[in-house]
Design goal:
The chain is mainly alpha-helical and about 230 residues long. The chain has a domain at about 160-225. It contains 14 helices and no strands. It has helices at about 1-15, 30-35, 40-50, 55-60, 75-90, 95-105, 110-120, 130-140, 145-155, 165-175, 180-190, 195-205, 210-215, 215-225. The model has no long low-confidence stretch (mean pLDDT about 80).
Length: about 230
């Protein structure tokens, strides 16, 4: 019954589901006579999250995570994080759990941990997985490991026409001193995605003072556009 109660709450409190917007948010009557007392409920939840009541229940205990900044976001994120850490202990070779941990690490902005999970996950596929390498290149870029990110880009060249792929490559080139080539690739990235503020910041970072002065009108227009 504890599981059914949680699913009811998830179903009726999902911020992305507007079908319940005008429904009564009152708890159903069965909550009162089928629910455990608070102490027993906390103990049972603890057992579930520790995996003591089985993998299926633990896996389905995780509900939808609200948008970042919304009420309950941090709590839902932590619950999902702890659940998948426990699931991975139960089945270390299950790629689904590693993939979920990598996605949650990204939400928690743990870039190094995300790239480590994705690196391990890539080892599950001996033929390579370009999507995983692309995600890993992005996490390495966000963590400031530009040389490593550049290596990952070579393993996901099917994304080479994406604005973000080009941004990561340009950042790697600029960080190693190849400013001219980096700026050329940043131009390509900005043509594909004119709203990418990170690409604009790298443009400024890779420009000398004289170049920034020459581009001042273009830069000013860009700043106005992205405000």
């Amino acid at each position: 019954m504890l599981y059914l109660k949680r699913r009811w709450l998830h179903h009726h409190q999902d911020p992305s589901d507007y079908t319940h917007l005008f429904e009564s948010q009152l708890e159903p009557k069965w909550f009162s006579y089928l629910s455990l007392n608070k102490k027993d409920e906390e103990k049972r939840v603890s057992d579930i999250l520790a995996g003591k009541l089985g993998q299926y229940l633990l896996m389905n205990w995780v509900g939808p995570i609200p948008p970042e900044g919304a009420s309950g976001y941090e709590s839902a994120l932590d619950t999902a994080w702890n659940a998948f850490l426990q699931l991975r202990k139960l089945q270390p070779a299950q790629g689904l759990f590693l993939d979920s941990l990598a996605a949650l690490a990204h939400q928690k902005k743990l870039w190094d941990l995300e790239s480590a999970y994705l690196d391990t996950l890539s080892g599950f596929n001996p033929f390579g997985d370009q999507d995983i390498q692309y995600r890993r290149a992005n996490s390495l870029f966000l963590g400031g490991h530009y040389a490593e990110a550049k290596k990952s880009l070579k393993r996901c060249e099917s994304f080479q026409h994406e604005a973000r792929w080009l941004l990561i490559k340009a950042a790697a080139l600029c960080s190693e001193g190849n400013i001219h080539k980096g700026r050329k690739i940043l131009e390509q990235s900005l043509k594909l995605d004119k709203t990418n503020h990170e690409a604009f910041l790298w443009w400024k970072k890779c420009s000398s003072e004289s170049e920034q002065s020459t581009d001042s009108l273009w830069v000013k227009r860009w700043e106005i556009r992205t405000q």
